[in-house]
Structures are given as C-alpha cells and as structure tokens.
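Why do we bother with a discrete structure alphabet at all? Because it lets us treat a fold like text: something you can write down, compare, and reason about line by line. To make this less abstract, here is a complete entry for Membrane metallo-endopeptidase-like 1. Read it the way you would read a sentence in a foreign language you are learning: slowly, and without expecting to understand everything at once.
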Amino acid sequence: MISISTRSRLFLSFLICLFLSVSEARSVSNDSHEENRITDDTAEYLRSYGAKMKSYMNFSVEPCDDFYEYACGNWKKPRRSNHKENNMHSIDYSLAVITEQLMTRTQLAEALNVSAELLVTQRFYNACLTAVVSPLPAADPAYLSLIRSVGGFPAVDGAAWNASKFSWFNMSAHLTNYGVKGLINENIRHTYPFDPYFERPYLGYDYLANMVDIANSSSRAYKRNENRMRGYLQAFNLTEEKISAVVAGVFDFWREALSIEDKFWGEELMCIMLSNMHNVPIFSQWRSYFEIAWNGQNFDEEKYYYCPYYYAELDKVCAKHQEAVANYLAMLLLYRMESSVKDEKYHKEHCLMQVQTTMVHLISKLYMAEHFSEETHSEVSGMVKELRKTLRQELENADWLDTETRREALLKEANITAHIGSYKDEQLTDTMIRQIRNLSVVEDSYAQTMINLRELETSLQRFNGLHYKERASDSKPLDFLVGMQVNGFYYNLDNSIYVMAGILQAPAYHRSWPASLKFGTLGYLVGHELTHGFDTVGSTYDGTGEMRSWWSFKSEDEFQERMQCYVDHFSNYLIPEINHKINGDVTKDENIADAGGLREALAAYRSHMKQLQKNGENNETLTPQNEQMPGLDLSPEQLFFLGFAQLYCANYERDNYWKELQNDHIIEKYRVLGAVTNNEDFAEVYNCPLGSAMHPKSKKCRLW
C-alpha cells in the first residue's frame, strides 16, 4: 500500500529562473569573483523568498491562538481550476515552466536517444496551443463518432438510437479505455500482477451527486451538475424543452442508483454479506469488460469483481432508465475531454500539464539529466539518514513497547531502503518512453488528438498489468520510475521510502535555505513517510515487507489506545463552511504520520546542528542569523514550524470541502492545527501559555 502525502501546483517564474541561475553558477567556477556573485545571488534569493513567506502571514493573529491563520492568513492565489489550490501545488506550475524548457532540448534528447518521442511531444504541444480548449467544443464530430461507437447518445440521435442494442455495462467498459470512471470505477493495483480492482461508482460531474443534494433542485450540487449537462446539450442545438427533459432523466436515474446504497449503507462488506445472503451470483457481464478493456487478459478474475449484489440491483435500475444512462455516460466522456481552463491566460499552462502528465517518463528522463544534481542527492540522502536516526531513537525510547516488539520495530527500521530522486530501471523507462510513438497527432482535429491522448494515458496506466507475464513478481509500480513528480511515499511491500526529485523545489526544498527551514519542510515530509511504516497499516508489515503480526498483545493494546487519541482529537474539528466534522477514523494514519513526521524532523534538525558543532564547524554557517530567513523576525525553530505550516496554505471553494471529506488526508488547515497542538516543542518554541488554543490543557496525542 502506498501512502501519498503530498500532491502538487503555482510558483513565480522568476524564482525558478533564479534557482536555475544559482544552480548553474555553482557548477561553473570556483574563483573568488564567481563565489562572490553566488553569495550575492543567494542573499538576494533569500531576501526575496523571506518576503514571500512574510506576505503569506497574518500578523493580526497570535501564533498561539491559530497558527494556521498566523502562517497562511494572507495566502491568496488565483484559482485555476475547480479543485482546491494549495501552496504545494505551486511546484506543479513551476515544473510546467521547466517542461516547456525541456521540450526545446533537442541535443539532450539526441544524447538520451529519445529524439523521436520528443518530436511527437512537440507536435502534440503545438496542436494544443493552437486549439480551442475552453469551452469544450462538445459537438465536434470526433467526439460524437466515438460516443456512437461505444453506445450512442440518444439525446442527440433521437429515433436513430437503438435501445435494443444498448448495453450500459459495455458502454462503461469502453469508456474506461479513455480514463472515464463511469458505472465501472476502475483502479489499478500497485502490486503484481498490477490488475484492476473496482470501487463503488460515483455519480456526477463537477460535484459528486448524493441523495441529499440532488433532492433539492436549488442546491449547489444540483445546479453545478445541471449547468454542466446543459452546456454540453446546448452545443448540439437542442431545444430547451428537450434539454430539460434529458437533464431531468439523468437526475431521475441518479436518484434510483443512489437508493441502492441505502440497502447496504454503501459499505462493501455489507454488500458482500447481502450478496451471499440473497445468493446473488457474480454479475454475468464482467467477462465482456475484460475483453473490451484488457484485451481478454487472463487474470484470476473472481477476486476483482465488485459486489455482485450492487451490480445486480444497478442492472435493474439501468434497464428502467436506458436513455438516461446512455446520455449520462456520453456526457461523462465529454467531461473527461474538458480542460478545466477557467481563463484563456492559463491555456499554455494547461497544454504543458497535458505533456507533463502523459509524456511523463520522457519529460522525467530529460528532467533528471538536466536538473537533478549529485549535490542535491547527497544533501537529501543526509537528511533522510538524520530522520531515520531520530525515528530509531523514538522507537528505542517508546517505553510502552515490550522488549520483543521493540526488537521487531528496530529491525524494521534498520531494513528500510531509501530511494532519492526515483527508482531506477532504465530498460523499463525506455520501454515506457517508446509508447509515445503510438500517439497519433491529427493535424486537422484536436478533438481526435485528445481522444488519442486519453487512450494513450490509459494504456500507459495499464501497461504493467497488460504485460505482467513478462514482469518479475517483485516489480515496482511504473510511477516509481518517474522522478519528476511532486511526491514522497513509503511502500510497505518492500519497506522502502521514496523522495522523488520533483518535490525538491520551494515550498518543500531549496539548497540555499537555512537548515531550519529545510528540516521544517522536506524533513517533515520525509518523517511523515517514515512514520507510515509504523501506523495502523504499516505496523502490520515487518521489515521484509511481509504482512504478519509482530506485536505483543500488551503493546498492541497500548498502540490502539494511543491511536484512538488521534481519532478522537481530529473528530472534534468542525468545518464551519459546511457544518460538518472531520472523520478522525478515516484520516487517522495521515494524522499520526503528520505528528510523527513533525516531531522527528525537529529532533533531526537539533541533532544536525549539534553534530556540526561537535565536528568543530564553528564557522559563519552556524550563526543564529544564518539559520534564520531575512526579513522574518523568527528564531530558527520558529522558522522550522512556519515552513511546515506554509506547505499547507490553501484556497477552498465550498464544493472542495465536501470532496476532501472523502480523502484520508484532512483539510490543510486542520493538518497544521492538529499537528502543532499535539506537539510539546511547538508550545515551547512559540511561548504558548498552557490553556491557549495551540497549547490546550488536554493530554497531547502521541504515538511516536
């Protein structure tokens, strides 16, 4: 199981250029004039970045009253999509700028033997730049032709649509080939044989439909979904009467489909019990899904089927609403082709993101060759070692562990493997890059090009599964090969941690930063992932990646009690924007990892500084001033906590709060508040009086 702790987007281009110039300068010359220039450039960068950090802060709020508001109260960024925006997302946008630069590196591509693939990428990018991407030209013949080939669009085709030949299941299966999660919600396992597994289908477009919201035609959810459908249908010049009837039909279908969940509360375990209780056989059409979507791949299929009872009931509902189901799925395909570009000024950025996310192995190979230095690798490796040392100390000092359980825990820590930058498998990486040649860029039809792109994306995601017989049983997921991603994660199956090269940019990392800030940002992120090896899931795997019980009953009971503290603490947070509380049980492992990561990172920073002093490095790099950020009147350890909090500065719309409730990572504000209120050092560093909001009198939660 992979635990993803951060995801990415929005940085100012001049900072990227500055970063590149500083890095380049360091590699050119060592003479005194050059060193002075580097020093000057670094000082200017630090002043600039310090001013940026300061601009995010709300000094009218005391840090002990609301540390998130203090750190992020003035963080305001333009919304570029319908999704939430946070400070970590800025890295995605900075990487997009770098992607544009990399597409011009023809000599580098020749040296790496990827010229043909870069040429295809350039052709797609140029086609995207000249295309109309917003609003989506829904009535484009290419889209309509595809819809008709997989099931039809009765709202548009009228009497020409043949209900007797329509299969809602087959249409859903075809749509998965373009990454559409229709009435088959396909996911791909990260473990051999990298086969598909399924979750309950989610209904809706911009806003996931639920029974409460769509029961009220004036609700935001109803309006957003209605407007989305009306936009598509108007492109076909349908009458208002026809459009209203089609929209109403889709909502009627959704209501009946959602009512199925009431019979088993949406829980898969209950669904399985009902399937067994009612003797419901495996849904008969799954074989056709594997034929349509997986080239008839011969997996051990029975373990992949989602709840027979659910699909038996859904089949009855779909039979009653055939036209509505076909219309819904047709518009869902159009939705998949949408760009989400809210303003034409983001057009180029959108095209770069398409390249960055689809031609990912190619762009990553170029990125690693040009931007990932040995110096960065060495520094990050050193930080990981320091974090592991503090984790080991936490395990050694956990007096609630009995001797045998502690021995197993320490053995597990000792066997952790760290990968900095990416996982390396050059042969497989090159194989993935060669797949880009399969993308057909149609000069006079960007719609057809987009269809081809979505099909390529899906085939790349399925590649391991489609070729699993050629792979070893211990093969890694394909995304482990991609260094240019904003990610860090812990992988239970081989007890390893990954710090990907793409995350090594502000606000997570910069080589020029003081160590106090580096440990508060990247150090915390690394500690977070290491702690996942000892959360409620990680603790069920041993040091070899085998799932087995290595806990004594006594230690397990204490573990559960400490874990419950986190569940209870976070369940008390009320999100006022939607008047809903956080689910502390669903989010417990991420909250445990946040708390552990923050504690380990501060201990690692303190250990790092003591080690420098012990080694006699009493030079100017150890002065308190050089462990601070220019323009911020903060001690090094106060800067440490500020850097952590500003990773999670965020903008939300009301819809985003509801979507985040389904996530195992809680809303950013409460990640920050929950971590610092359960951290003894924070209260000391910021001089928070006992009883203040950030230093409550209640017992602090602590696992590690």
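What the structure line is telling us, in plain words: The CA atoms of residues 612 and 618 lie 8 Å apart. Residues 588-614 form the longest helix (27 residues).
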